[in-house]
Write a structure and sequence with these properties.
By secondary structure, the protein is an alpha/beta fold. It folds into 2 domains: 4-15 and 96-218, Rossmann fold, CATH 3.40.50.1000; 18-95. It contains 9 helices and 6 strands; from the N terminus they run E-H-H-H-H-H-E-H-E-H-H-E-H-E-E. The chain has helices at residues 18-29, 38-54, 61-76, 82-95, 102-108, 121-131, 141-144, 151-161, 175-184, and strands at 4-7, 113-117, 137-140, 168-172, 188-192, 207-209. Strands 3-2-1-4-5-6 form a 6-stranded parallel beta sheet. Helix 1 (18-29) crosses helix 2, helix 1 (18-29) runs antiparallel to helix 4 (82-95) and helix 3 (61-76) runs antiparallel to helix 4. It starts with a strand and ends in a 14-residue tail after the last strand.
């Protein structure tokens, strides 16, 4: 019996920063002395970002985003300023719009929910305040000192709700961070497939949904 939810935030509750990142990469590529595509900047940024997220010691998400973009700019010959470019991304983290159907889902579901997010606590709290959202608990990587898919993130969420792994679902849009991370903690993952991709055979989620509205009929609702 499901007694609670662990819920990813960006890409699940609010829109991911895909468009903002694409715009940053385009602006960066335009500063290169030679032909550099936005996609090349984005790939270099993502590789550096993932490596920094997995490295010790732990660093806050803002620091990693700016440092990894600076590394990507250097490797691609772009002369843009990483701090200036990241300002748009940081602004998105604090004001990202809600995904379709989220407000109705949160107003109707009758379960305690813990947000489990990699974004720094002050940015996440600003976002929740921006939308007037409150949850039973909020766990950030900054609190735990690790990023998803570390099982420590999910175990902290379970502890915050006072529930066992078999009593919750984790809902998130990332196969590597949310689905794999939840499984590593013994939690059934629900994949928010917002890009309409084919579910991978080697990492099957417990369920696949397009958004939180698709999950509403499977959970207890307020009367």
């Amino acid at each position: 019996m499901i007694k609670g939810l662990l819920l990813d935030c960006y890409g699940t509750v609010v829109e991911e920063d895909d468009e903002v990142v694409a715009a940053i990469c385009a602006r960066a590529a335009a500063t290169a002395p030679g032909p550099v595509s936005p996609a090349r900047v984005g790939e270099a940024w993502w590789r550096a970002f993932v490596a920094a997220s997995l490295a010790a010691p732990f660093r806050r998400q803002r620091e990693i985003a700016e440092a990894s973009l600076a590394a990507a700019l250097a490797s691609t010959g772009c002369t843009a300023d990483a701090a200036a470019l990241c300002a748009d991304q940081f602004g998105h983290w604090r004001t990202a719009p809600l995904r379709p159907g989220v407000r109705a889902f949160l107003d109707g579901v009758d379960l305690p929910i813990c947000i489990v997010s990699d974004i720094d606590r002050d940015d996440l709290e600003a976002l929740l305040g921006h939308h007037g959202l409150s949850f039973a608990a909020v766990v950030t990587s900054e609190d735990v000192g690790a990023y998803k898919p570390s099982p420590r993130m999910f175990r902290r969420g379970l502890a915050a709700l006072g529930l066992r792994a078999e009593e919750v679902l984790h809902v998130g849009d990332s196969l590597t961070r949310d689905v794999a991370g939840a499984r590593s903690a013994g939690i059934a993952p629900v994949w928010v497939n917002r890009r309409n991709q084919a579910p991978p055979a080697d990492l099957p989620p417990a369920a696949v949904i397009g958004g939180l509205a698709d999950l509403a009929g499977r959970l207890p609702r307020r009367r």
